Structure formats: structure tokens, C-alpha cells
């Protein structure tokens, strides 16, 4: 604390005062509400202004987890969230690494490819969704035409829930692959070139060089990507909204929270503004993030310490 | 190149085989990259083609090239949707929220990075754990409702004054500024506020550009928050307006495609211009953290 050079006494308060607005925004808009979600999950808050809010303790959780059809729908949504997370994370991680390796070579025109793969990140969920709705147009759209050549007919996003979800997974990966690729490229560029040089002199094959040089030294970006992909895909649902809307058999937890809290049909129950219930669902999702995220984070840190010392 | 320099030990035929292998690897890389590129550019091409067609043409064959270049769809989309209004709204939200965010963020990140406030480490941790926090939609909504900021543009902008990742990026970047700078400035009688505004700000411009662009993209593309908070059509940003337009013209793909292109082009141009900052920021924050 003695390294502060800009005066003593009252002048010492300057950094605190100037930090205050930004930190207050964080407390009031993000951290506070995030913590308050826990409290709201014990109430029957409705989101209607002036309505009385009652303390109902664990009633929301009881209903969410143990009450007939509604809870069965919730479990289905939870499983779907996990499936979505698994496929998005594994595929996006592997393809992102592959693209980064391809694009990081000294080849003509790789910058153009980089730009192309990163482009959807800028466009946002609405445009991403609309672009693919058009491409997957079932009545003679491009993909329908191509598949038609092989005698395959598909409703794509309007088809069976499992198929619709597979397409959302596809678009989600398409949309965010660029971020994963860029983080890997940054990692690759920190690896000194002479390591490859000496590996080659030692007679290492391409695969051996990857296995023994690239992969271990890529650990920081591997960690970042895995964690971002897992947590991001557990919470993602915007593309479900744009691509298929709230349809039976396709909801994930994030969408369920929105639908319950702000009034839409959920599973077999239609509800309006059940914010206490939605808060309970948010806490369930939060635990899911912790239960998966923290062990992964711990494992990755252990691995990093082992490899990079 | 290294195959040539170490080639003294290798006999000519193996050297040639190695060269051939590299050529094949190169071709393979291009083929793979092109396949991926098709998946990325194809849907955009389809969008352009569709936007230039008439509805009957589209019904007859969705994939055929347009017979003539019609720009009526763009005029129609522009007139039918209130795009000028939506775009103006989005621009106002994005610029004002980003400006306030960036200024306040620097005043948070600088003392944390330098340890000029007590508990700087804890503060930084608070920003890092934001990644794990539960979805705050519900209490946030209750808060805005009770403050009378529901369906209010000012309230809407307030939702975007926070972005923890930006703070982490700034903290990391400020660490690269030498401490002697602070000492020298203080010696010359420069105060804290003046030091941050006239010396730190210009020196961390690349990091500021990065967090500003990342934050602005997020606001520009936000769909959920306007759906929750804005009911008055006059306040709609372009994303919400687009969804409403889709609701009305959803089956008229040529007009819808033209509308999507109108919304896409500014973003694409901006991206090509600012690409550098977006990429460097994403990676700077990620690889160190």
C-alpha cells in the first residue's frame, strides 16, 4: 500500500472514489441480482408490480424436482442441456483446434479463411438464426435440394425434436467455432518455432511433434477453451429461440428459465411470469455449472501444474 | 525449408519424397479449409441470392439464381419495417452504454492492477467469478420494475454498464505499463485523476479499443433483454425489430432476406475494419488467464 505516489490524506481517497461508479454498476446490475436469485427462488414472486411476494421456502424446488408431469419435463430439459453441452463442447473444441492448426501454417490466403470462420461471431444470434433458417428451408432450400439428390427428405428445424436439436447444436458450433479457433491460434503463436526445428532434427514425425510439443504447450488455451465452451453451452439458448421457438421436446434449462419467468408455454404447463419458480430453475442451472465447471477447472489446473510446472 | 538444411545427411530420393509429402499436406490443408469455408460462405450466398428474387421465383425454385437483379426487396423491407428507427435506437444504446462502460472500467481496472486500493486481489476475484454466477435475469427484472425503469430506454442502457471480462483484459494490459511512469508523474505534481485521464488512457488505447468493440458487439446483437424490458415499439433495437419483422413477413423469404442483409452489412463492414482489435483482445485475455 505504500507504493501510492499521488499524495496523502484526502488525496489517498481518489482511486476509491473513482473506482466506485464502475464497481457499483457491477454490484447493482450483476453480482447483487445473481446472489438475490437465491432469495427469489424461495418466494412466489410474480413480476407484476405491486403484487405481494410471499416466502414459500422450498415449494418451488419441490415443484421443480418432484411434481408430476412438470418435473418430468424439467428433468428432460436438464438432460437436453447436458446433451447440448456435451456435443457443442467436444465438437467445437476439436474442430476449433483443427482449424487453428490449419490456419496457423505459412500458407497463402490463410488470413481470409480466418476472417471467414470468425465472421458469425460478429453477426449475433438473430442473424445467425435467420441465415440458417433460410439455408434449411425445407421446401426446396439449398440443403433440402442437396439431400433430395440422395432421396433424403427432411423437415430440419421443423422435424422431430431430436433432429431439430441436432440442427441447433450444428448452428451453435458454426456460430462460435471462430472464438475457439482464435484462442487456439493465440496459444499456438506463443510456442517458439525452434522447438519444432529441434524436434524435426531429432526425426520426429508431424504427429510426434504435435503430441510432444504443441499439445503440452497449448495447455493454457486448452483450459480457457474447455471452460468457456462448457459454461457457455450450459447457459446458451438464444439460438433455440430464433431457430425453433419454444417447442415441446426441445427446451433447455436456459430457455425454461426465460419462459417461466417471463410468461410462455413450458412443457405441458402454460404459465405467466412465475419468477420465483424461474429463479429456482436458475439456481438448478447454477448448480449444474458448478458441479461440472469446478471439477473440470480443478482437473485442468492440476494438469497445467504437472505439465508446465 | 529445414528439410533442405538438414538434407546433407538425407539422400536425394528421400529429400524429394519429403518435398512431395509437404506438397500433398499443403493441398490437403487447402481442401479441408475450403470445405469449411463453403459451410460458412454458402448460407450467406443463399441470403444474397434470395434477396434479389421475386416471391414467385423463390416459390418455383428456392435455390435457382435470380433471373434479373431486383432491388425492390430492399426498398420494400426498408419501408415496411421501421428500420431507420430501430437502427438509430441500437446505435444510441450501443454508443452511450459502451462509452460509460469503458470510462468506468478503466477507473476500476487501473487501481486493481496497481494495487492502489485495499483488497485489489479480492476485487479482481469478484470479477473473475462472474463467469460462474447464476443467471440474474429475475432479480434484475424486479429491480428495474421497482425503480420504474421498465420499458425505459435509460433503464435499458443501464443493463449494459457491466462487463467483467473487459475488466480482466484491462488489468492484464495495464500490468505491462512500467511503474516508474506513476512515480515520475507524481514527482512532477500530477494528480491521480489527471494521471489516469491524460497518461493511462492514451497508453492503453489498444486494450480500450478491444473491450469497447467486444462490448459494443454484445449490445448490438442483444435479443433477450429488449424482449424482456422494452414493450414500446419506438424503443426497439434492430434485433427485436428484426424478430417482429420475421413474425409478419416470415413466409416472404425474399423480403426477409433483404432485411437480414440490411442488418448484416453494417456489422460486416465494421468487423472488417476493426477485426484486429477484436481478435487481439479475445486472445490477450484468454491465454494469460
Quick summary:
The complex is a heterodimer of chains A (309) and B (289). Helix content of chain A is 72%, strand content 1%. With 309 residues, chain A is an all-alpha fold.
Kindly describe this structure.
- The complex is a heterodimer of chains A (309) and B (289).
- In chain A, 72% of the residues lie in helices and 1% in strands.
- Chain A is built from twelve helices and two strands, in the order αααααααααααββα.
- Chain A has a two-stranded antiparallel sheet with strand order 1-2.
- The two termini of chain A are 30 Å apart.
- Chain B has two domains: 50 residues; 216 residues, MetI-like (MetI-like fold, Orthogonal Bundle), CATH 1.10.3720.10.
- In chain B, helix 2 crosses helix 15, helix 9 runs antiparallel to helix 12 and helix 9 crosses helix 15.
- At the A-B interface, helix 1, helix 3, helix 4, helix 5 and helix 6 of A face helix 2, helix 5, helix 6, helix 7 and helix 10 of B.
Keywords:
A: MetI-like fold, two-stranded antiparallel ribbon, B: 289 residues, mainly alpha, MetI-like fold, 2 domains, 15 helices, 0% strand
Q: Low-confidence runs of chain A (pLDDT<50, min 5 residues)?
A: 266-270
Strand portion of chain A: under 5%
Average pLDDT rating of chain A: 89
- The tally of strands of chain B reads 0
Pick out the low-confidence regions of chain B: 1-9
Task: Give the CA-CA distance, first to last residue of chain A.
Answer: 30 Å
Individual helix count of chain A: 12
**Biggest β-sheet: strands ordered side by side in the sheet of chain A:** 1-2
Query: How much is the average pLDDT of chain B?
Result: 87
- Radius of gyration of chain B equals 26 Å
Largest sheet of chain A, in brief, is: 2 strands, antiparallel
